[in-house]
Fold each of these.
Amino acid sequence: MNDIENTLFLVGRVLVGFYFLVMGMNHFGNLEGMTQMVAEVGLPAPAVAVIVSGILLVIAGMSFIIGYHPPLGVLAAGLFLVPVTLVIHDFWAIEDPVARQQELTTFLRNVGLLGSVLVFLAIPRPWPMSLDRFIQRRRFEKNFAEEEEEEEWVVEEEQ
């Protein structure tokens, strides 16, 4: 990728990550309301479900924003999106046309989000402008410096 593509990819992944991060933080900021909504759907342990789903969203968001282990972020997003989309946003079970349309819209948004995060798996890693790339570069520099020191030591011994 060239510099413009790297920058656009960074902006795109930060926007997607920001969405997941804000939604995850909303789970904790509105724990009572979210728990009530999940309880109305009939899921067991609704507070635990809200907390776990909030954690998954935060993990996904941070992974995408900083570029740290993106497959982990994709897994976290998928573990949130698939069950929530199928269980919470079951538009097909709603008779009221307005409510049905709202749930269909949310269902399709989640399907689109799942598709967007799956695309992240196709981007070669480490991602440009990412924590993974920074860590890789630091390891390379450290290993290179250690090899140079070893070579200097061997040369000194030979003399």
Note: The chain has a mean pLDDT of 93.
Amino acid sequence: MKFLWMAVLLVSFVGVTGCVYDAAYCRYSGDSGTGYDEKHFDDGSWGVEFVGGYPDFCKEAAYYHAAELTWEKGYRYFKVLQKADVSRNVETSGPHTTASGGQVAGSSVYVPMYLYKIRMVKTSGAGTVDAYHVLNTHKYPRKEEPYTVDERNGDKSPSGK
């Protein structure tokens, strides 16, 4: 599964950062070169991705954001239609300044990237993932405690989602 918008993120990422492993869970930013992003497709599905960090962190952060996006869009469940590790080595032109301030000539940088293609659904069924359960039980990437739906919404109940 390839997304054109992923190539744009990749080029921005490599040009800005000197270290791909220092990622935090946040929306993608050209300033940090890491983070999650999503895209809505004409067939009603969504592409959810995470760029940067260690490969396992990248995969978990993309999965977590799939649940978060599902909840934010008013759904309780989602189905994973496709998942792909699209990490790669990228050649950079140099010289450029690293995150620590050093100068580096052109080099090869390993960029972890993970993508999920999901479809949000209102009811549970075969192959569905409960976004509420993911948000309440999975550790928020780089946070000690789970980032719960209750924490996000105060005391709002997930009923009706």
Note: The first strand starts at residue 35 and ends at 40.
